[in-house]
Predict the structure.
Amino acid sequence: MDDDHVQIHVVRMGICELLVLQTKSEAEKLRLLIREKRGRVGPLFRPDGWEGRTGFFNYSRRLLSTLLRDHPIYSALEGPSRTGSARPCP
C-alpha cells in the first residue's frame, strides 16, 4: 500500500461502526483525528477475524463521512473484507 493512502474497512453495527485499519499507527492517527473533531471513539483493539489488523469503534458516523471527503489520503470499504463482500463506501 502507498505511504500516502490509507484504506479503512467500515463495518456498520447498530449505532456505531467498527473501523479496521492495516496497522496500529494508522488506526491511532485516524482515531486521534476523529477525536480532535470532537467525535466519539472507543479504544484500539485487535478485532477477531481481522488477523494482524487494528480497529476501534466510531460513534460519529457523519463525522467519518466528512473526514473521508476532506482527507483524500483515506478511502473506505464497507463491510467485512474477510467475506469477500467489501465494496466502496458511498
About this structure: The longest helix spans residues 24-36. Confidence is low (pLDDT under 50) at residues 81-90. The longest strand covers residues 6-13. The beta strands are 6-13, 16-21, 54-58, 74-78, 87-88.
